[in-house]
Amino acid sequence: MNKNHWLLRLAALLLASYTLLAVGVMATGAPGSETDPLVTLSYLNDSFLPQLLGKVDEKLDARDKALADKLGEQVAADKKALAKQYGVTDGASGTADSFCVVTLSEGQTLSGEVGCEVLLRSGTASCVATSAPGLVDETGGTTLNGGEALAANHLYLITAAGRGVRAAAAEVTLLVRGTYTVG
User: Fold this and answer.
1) What is the pLDDT of residues 83-118, one digit of tens each?
2) How many folded domains does the chain comprise?
């Protein structure tokens, strides 16, 4: 019987310890509060998820801005490189190692430096020169004097300063190689 008392006392002691432990845990805080380590669905939906999504949105916005800035820089660099390679200019003058497209409005004049080449693609234009010869027609093997009309798809060479092409139509498209100004 002595043996049974020890077992009974041990069981009562374990039961009392478990009860004290359970009461202590329940006294630490209500379920779902900041002091309770239990994660509830309402905490996830009301607190954690909005915070997480807010941080994700901030990171995505920062990344989008960085990518947009990088893309803008790359586009500007590519545009500059292409303009340099093909002689395209935003202004009214340029220098091209290869042919570039120049569009003139009626009355505008393209003045080229010596060695500049001009090819009339569309519209009508005339030679601007104060003395003969105005332009050398490389295609036809002839010369043009001031006021004479350029022939479409003929290549003209400017051999002296003060020479150029004046647009006689509403829109004239030229291919130009060399240094020129539009005025």
Assistant:
1) 665 555 444 555 666 788 888 988 899 988 888 999
2) 2
